[in-house]
Specification:
Blueprint (H helix, E strand, L loop, with lengths): L4 E5 L5 H14 L8 H6 L2 H13 L3 E8 L2 E10 L7 E8 L8 H15 L4 E7 L3 H9 L3 E9 L2 E12 L3 H6 L1
Parallel strand pairs: 4-5
Antiparallel strand pairs: 1-2, 2-3, 3-4, 5-7, 6-7
Length: about 180
């Protein structure tokens, strides 16, 4: 039987869980993220506590955690940038290998998107490294498409990443589905 997957917004006291998931994601999938494992390992525990506390209450940025049978098994960040008009992003998405292909990634993206839409977003953006074919196919399967915007990966300037976007369905579109 498939394990049951649930998603909840991070709580203010989950700095240690956040640190555990971030380091696990950077260790397992270093090609997928802007930060490095060394960055995460050298940061002190207090910085993860501070991030958890902010993401638990902020209207601009948050983290959602995926659980399988109550155990943390993945995460995603949702935030608005500082441009005018501000743009909504999902990033730092990771699902533990043991629970991949069970729709946990989809649940994380949809939950983060709903939170952003609730704050007024009409489009959800995601930067994906061109070399990360799995993530590219994953986002395409969820209805994300190219914006035509590209940039160099800060961690590896010889590589490129592309900006994808998915439109938030309007209430009338959603009720027709
Ligand atoms: C990308 C990732 C989050 C997907 O998580 P997941 O829980 O396995 O994905 P889901 O089960 O929700 O997949 C939803 C759909 O996306 C597509 N998909 C998912 N993984 C895929 C893959 N490896 N190749 C092709 N399509 C894929 C499928 O269409 C899938 O639906 P299906 O299983 O019915 O075919 C996960 O593979 C991961 O953590 N990878 C490493 C980190 C990473 O690359 N993060 C993204 C940074 S931009």
């Amino acid at each position: 039987m498939s394990p049951s997957l649930t998603v909840r917004r991070i709580a203010a006291d989950q700095g240690a869980v956040f640190r555990e998931l971030r380091t696990a994601s950077l260790r397992e999938a270093p090609y997928a993220f802007g930060a490095t494992l060394e960055d995460a390992l050298s940061a002190d525990a207090a910085s993860f506590d501070a991030t958890a506390a902010e993401h638990a209450v902020s209207l601009r940025i948050t983290t959602f955690i995926l659980y399988t049978e109550g155990h943390p098994a993945g995460l995603i960040e949702a935030h608005f940038d500082d441009t005018t008009p501000r743009r909504a992003f999902v990033c730092e998405l990771w699902v533990a290998p043991a629970v991949r292909h069970l729709r946990g990634g989809e649940l994380l993206v949809d939950t983060a998107s709903a939170w952003l839409a609730n704050q007024g977003a009409t489009e959800i953006h995601a930067w994906v490294a061109d070399a990360n074919r799995n993530a590219m196919r994953f986002y395409e399967a969820l209805g994300f498409g190219p914006t035509g915007e590209h940039r160099r990966v800060a961690r590896a300037p010889e590589q490129a990443e592309s900006l994808l976007v998915r439109h938030v369905p309007t209430t009338s579109q959603a009720s027709q589905q």
